[in-house]
Fold:
Amino acid sequence: MDDPRLTPARPDLAAKYLEGKVKAARFVAGEEFEIAAALAPLREAPASDAMLLTQALKGERVTIYDRNGEGFAWGQLNSDGYVGWLPDAALTKPGAAPTHKVTALRTFAFPAASIKLPPVETLTMGASVTVAWNDGAFAVIREGWYLPHRHIGGVETTEDDFVAVAERFIGTPYLWGGKSSLGVDCSGLVQISLNAAGIGCPRDSDMQQDGLGRELGPAEAKQLQRGDLIFWNDHVAIARDASTIVHANAHHMATAVENTRDAIARIKAAGSEVMAIKRMG
Structure:
């Protein structure tokens, strides 16, 4: 059965590319948009209080299949294929292809080349921008905003160590569906960190368990290495070394470092056993 999280299909409407594969009253080709907002919520239903499934970052592309006329659009993110409802106000027609991305945890966009001016926006790691020209210590993007050069890199820029990226999020508040340093969940942390290292990554922990790395046998699993991923039901953590993990979790309500054995015992006591340990590379 197709995963509904990754399949733009409802009884009344589905993506044209699914015709002949799913049942729907009608099929539409969809239209590509760009995320104009700094961070756009992708929700389970077209309501501002509906569950947050994930977030789309500025500059991401999304294919929209339906707009309800009440401020919400239903579509599929081009980056990881996630399907849900986005606010219409977060969307714009696609502009020039992004040239750069935010490499800092977050950065301020200024209205001119001065850090003393009130910022017009806050952008988070992974947001994509199109640099129009440079002005001293700033890159001026298409919107006319000024971003510090130190906080951005070319779109092809990659980090060497995805675990080091995850460690930069220590202390970030836990947010179900969150995908930024303003709030992140366990699988969001893994996805952001791997993406920063140039590695494609599905959104949710079960998808990550199925799609990333190779599973370790019992003997190998006793010798954890930096970058190993530990999976439970609905949770994932990243090994920092042989004895500690970093993970966004609801126990600490933050991204935290924890002794691996202690975390496994604590989570087991709460009713969940380790399901798999995967090694990247």
User: Anything to note?
Assistant: The chain has a mean pLDDT of 97. The radius of gyration is 20 Å. The longest strand covers residues 61-67.
